[in-house]
Design a protein that fits this description.
Helices cover 33% and strands 11% of the residues. It is built from 7 helices and 7 strands. Strands 4-3-5-6-7 form a 5-stranded parallel beta sheet. Bound molecules: iron/sulfur cluster (SF4).
């Protein structure tokens, strides 16, 4: 340890690792502002970026969501509009797909009648992991106008887990697009272990 005569700042003396020419911290002058950190990694792999694989996969997944093409009632018309040319959901990497075997997201668009409960569960089980569900409209959220009806399930979350709820009867395509963007944010945040820890502590 030595003391800089001008500033009285303690600067650790470090001669570097074997085989590395410049010692760490060389070039640092007190009072000249923050310089980029000098590290062995930067010298061995200059211009290389590092990231956690979970977060990289999450970025890829959130930007290429394939939604299962099926609708249950009037909300499905708004979902179709979101995919059509005016709103063009494809801009967000969201592609509608006619098979559950390659789909990532199930958009439950419409009234979930009890007769459809088993087919919905079967379609969900046929989707590969990881998979997500958006409940679109008040019917899929809690039965909507058919609340406590003899033939309607009071929300699709009684059958399968739901990640995002889009309110409205029917929600406009913009609302569904906002719901998709919230799901993308959730996928990104779920890959961050520090965020998960904070949520668990709450
Ligand atoms: S929420 Fe409204 S628009 Fe959507 S399926 Fe139910 S009744 Fe139809």
């Amino acid at each position: 340890m030595e003391i800089d005569e001008n500033s009285n700042i303690h600067i650790p003396r470090f001669e570097g690792f074997a085989g590395v020419e410049k010692p760490l911290g060389a070039g640092y002058k007190p009072g000249e502002g923050n310089n980029p950190a000098d590290s062995v990694f930067n010298r061995v792999l200059p211009n290389a970026l590092t990231a956690k694989s979970d977060e990289l996969f999450a970025l890829a997944r959130k930007s290429s969501l394939w939604t299962l093409s099926f609708g249950l009632a009037c909300c499905a018309i708004e979902m179709i509009s979101a995919h059509a040319s005016h709103h063009d959901l494809d801009r967000f990497g969201v592609v509608t797909w006619p098979s559950p075997r390659q789909a990532d997201v199930m958009i439950v668009a419409g009234t979930v009648v009890k007769k459809m409960a088993d087919p919905i569960k079967l379609l969900y089980e046929q989707m590969p992991d990881p998979k997500w569900v958006i409940a679109m409209g008040s019917c899929a959220t809690n039965g909507g106008p058919y609340y406590k009806s003899y033939s309607v399930v009071m929300g699709v979350d009684h059958l399968i887990p739901v990640d995002v709820y889009v309110p409205g009867c029917p929600p406009r395509p913009e609302a569904l697009i906002y719901g998709v963007m919230q799901l993308q944010e959730k996928i990104k945040n779920d890959a961050k272990p520090s965020l998960n820890r904070e949520l668990l502590q709450e």
